Amino acid sequence: MILPDEDRIAALVADAVEELVRRRPDAVLGVATGSSPLPVYRELVARHRAGAGPDYGRVRFFTLDEYVGLPAASPASYRSTIARELTDPLGIDPGRVHGPDPSPEGLPGAGERYEAMIRDAGGVDLQLLGIGSDGHLAFNEPGSSLMSRTRVKTLTESTRRDNARFFGSAGDVPRHVLTQGLGTIRDARHLLLVATGAGKAGAVAGAVEGPVTASCPASVLQLHPHATVVVDETAAGRLERAGYYREVWVSKPPWQGL
User: Fold this and answer.
1) How many CA atoms lie within 13 A of 44 on its CB side?
2) Residue-by-residue DSSP string for 99-118
3) Is the pTM of this model over 0.85?
4) Strand bridging mode 60-63 / 28-31
């Protein structure tokens, strides 16, 4: 879907999240960090505070990834970020918010334990995603196996530079993360990727229209039976079939939803 601006994107994606939670009050939501989903989270929180949102009391949340080496209480940790931007304002019990455990003593088996937690919850119903400027998905950098599972990954220098805005400098960004793998992400029943800005245009085009390749990890969305990509005009700037996507969106039967 190509929409005019960030506000329209936030409203559409928030509608999809709320529709799921109303239909399935014990839904499992996969949540991403980074700048792309923040307008969606702000929209969900605003609706909740206005009394217009659904009851999230039985919903469970799973994050995509976590830095290795950061204290859990660090404002830059992804657990803290999700709590600050979404789950605390929604009034979610912290015990219903889960992320991979980056503690040094448990690191060797952390990926397998997180996979088991997701399975025990029944799997993720809706996974929100952003995309890196190099096409990375979660912290699956270019070259990641399309079948990969939750594991420790080393961040590229470009990703550390991209994330430096959340730290003092690129040198302060941890070199390692625990991240859901591309195979793990594909297990979710619905993937919903949000991208805005001209800086994401090349990555979006590669993910949607390019070959399925480890060189563009987000291209794995093409192998999923229910993947939705929502972008603004500038992020759509390099799509060759933009006219077709607009036509499909205008003609979409209302009962289908996202």
Assistant:
1) 27
2) -----GGGGGGHHHHHHHHH
3) yes
4) parallel
| Cβ atoms of 37 and 130 closer than 8 Å | yes
Domains of the chain, by residue range, sit at 2-256
Instruction: For 139-193, write each residue's pLDDT tens digit.
Output: 999 999 999 999 999 988 888 888 888 888 888 889 999 999 999 999 999 999 9
Spatial distance between the Cα atoms of 64 and 97, rounded to a whole number of angstroms: 12
Angle between helices 6-23 and 38-49 (to 10 degrees): 60
User: Does residue 142 contact residue 217 with C-beta atoms inside 8 Å?
Assistant: yes
Q: Does domain 2-256 have CATH number 3.40.50.1360?
A: yes
- Cα angle 236-167-153, degrees, rounded to a multiple of 5: 70
Q: Which residue pairs, CB below 8 angstroms and at least 24 apart, start in 222-227?
A: 223/146, 223/186, 224/186, 224/191, 226/189, 226/190, 226/191, 227/190, 227/191, 227/192, 227/193
Instruction: Give dist(CA 79, CA 53) in Å, integer.
Output: 23
Q: How far apart are CA 173 and CA 131, in angstroms?
A: 18
Among candidate residues 83, 93, 82, the one with its CA nearest the CA of residue 31: 82
Supply the residues annotated as catalytic. 65, 134, 136, 141
Classify residue 155 by its DSSP letter.
P
102-115, pLDDT tens digit by residue? 888 889 999 999 99
CA 122 distance to own-chain centroid: 19
Q: How many CA atoms lie within 13 A of 231 on its CB side?
A: 24
Residues 6+ apart with CB under 8 A from 46: none
Q: Which residues of 156-183 are buried (b: 16+ CB within 10 A; e: fewer)?
A: beebbebbeebbeeeeebbeebbbbbbb
